[in-house]
Here is the input.
Amino acid sequence: MENKRGSWGSDFGFLMAAVGSAIGLGNLWGFPYKMGSNGGFAFLVVYCVLVIVVGFALVLGELALGRKTGFGAVGAYKAMCKKHRWIGLMGVAAGFIILAFYFVLGGMVLRYVAGYFVNILGGDGFVGQGTGFFGYLLYDINSIILYSIIFIVISCAIVMGGIKGGIEKFSKVAMPALAVFLIIVIIYVASQKNAGAGYRFMFKPDWTYFRENFFTVLKTAAGQMLFSLSLGMGCMMTYGSYLPKNAHLQRNATIIPIADTAAALLAGCAVLPAVAAFAGENYGSGPGLLFHTMLQVFGNMNGVMGDLMGFLFFLLIFLAAVTSSISQMEVCNASIIDRRIEKKKAPRRPAITIFFALSAFIIGIPCAMDAMGSGGAAIKAPFEFLGLTAGSPGYQMWNSSWLNLYEFISEGILMPLGALIMSLLIGWVYKTRTVRRECEASGQRFKAGVFFSLCYKIIVPIIIGIVLCTQIIDLII
Ligand code: PHE
Here is the structure.
C-alpha cells in the first residue's frame, strides 16, 4: 500500500516540496501588496507574531496527523474519527477553489515570462510598455486562457510523475533556483535611487495605520499567513503522509515557516523598494502591484539586460507558483487515491489529476474574464451581479472580482475554519499527546510541549476565532 501511494525519496526532497508548496504567489505577489496596503512595518510585525504563535503549531499538527494516519486530508480526519471526515472534505474544497484562481494567476505570470523571452530573442513580446501592460493583459482573455492552459499542463505533468519522481524532483531544482533569482533581483533593486524609502516603509516602526485599523490588519495578516503556509486545508497533512517514520517532524515544522517567512520578506525587499524607486512610493496600489511595478523596474534597465532580468524574475515567480499549484492538486488527488487504494483498486493518478485540473480550470474561467473587476470586461464581476457599483456602500473586497470572491471563500473562510477546527481537535479531543507521540516516534524528544499545548488549546482558537468573526461581520455589514 505504501508503494502505491508513493513517498518522499529524502528529507531534503520533502523539505523542498513542502517549502515549495508554502512559497508561492502568496509570498511573491500577495505579501508585498498586502503589506503595502496595510501599514507596512506594523503588518510585518503582526505577521511574524502570527507565524510564531499560530503557524508553527499548525504546520506541526498537520504534518503529525498526516504521517500518523498515512492519509491525505480526508483519509486522515476519517482515520482519527469517522465523523470528522467532512473537515478533510472542506480542505479539499478549499484546495480546489485556490487551484482554480491559481491557474489563472499562474497563466498571467507565464505570459510575462513568454513576453520577456520573445524580447530577448529580438522580437516584440509586448511587455515593454511600462505599467500599461497589466491593464492591457487583464482584457486579453485569450492570452490569459491560453497561458493558463499551458500552466495547467505543466502542473499536471509534474503531479502525474508521482511524489518522488514528479513533485520532489521538480521542487529540488526549482526552489534553489528561485532563491538565487530572487537574490539577484534584490541586489539590483537595492542599487536603485530612492530604494531606501522602501526599506524604511518596511522596517521603520510606525503604528498609526495599525492603531486605526487593528482588526483589518489582523485579519489580513492571519489570512495571508494561513494561505502562505498552505495551512488549514490539509496540504501539509497530505505532504506529511508521504513522510517515512524516521523523519524529524519538529525540525521540519520549524524550517518550513522560517523559510516561508524569509521568502515573503525577501519578496517585500524586491518589490517595495522598487515601488519607492520607480513608482513614487505608491505602496497601496493593490493586487496589480507586482505586475506593474516590476515591469517598470525592468523597463528602466538598458535593453536586453532589462528583458533578461524581467525574464528571470517572472520565471522565478512561475516556478514558485508551480510548486504551490502541484501541492493543491495533490490534496485533491490524495482524497480519491487514498480511497481507491483502500478499496484495493489501482490508484489511477493520471486520470484523477486530469479530472481535478480540468474542473478547476472551468471553475477558474470567470477569474480570467472579469478583468479583476475593472469594469467593461467580458463578464460581470460579482459586485455588478449584485447590482452594486465600485465604491457603493455594499461594495466589498470579497465581491470586487471573481478572484477576490474565490480568495474570500478559501483564504477568508475555509482555511481559517479548517485551522480552527484542527487546533481545537488537537488541543481538546485528540490531545497534544497525539502530536507528541508522532514526533517521538522517530526517536526525537518533543520540545516545547507546553507551548504547543497552549497554542492548540487556547492561542490559535482565540486568534483564528477573532479573525473568522471579523470576516463574517465584514460579510454582513
Ligand atoms: N502557500 C501558497 C502560496 O503562498 C498557496 C497555497 C495555498 C498552496 C494552499 C497550497 C495550499 O502561494
About this structure: Residues 303-342 form the longest helix (40 residues). The chain has a mean pLDDT of 91. Residues 21-22, 24-27, 95, 98, 227-228, 230, 233, 235, 324, 327-328 surround phenylalanine (CB under 6 Å).
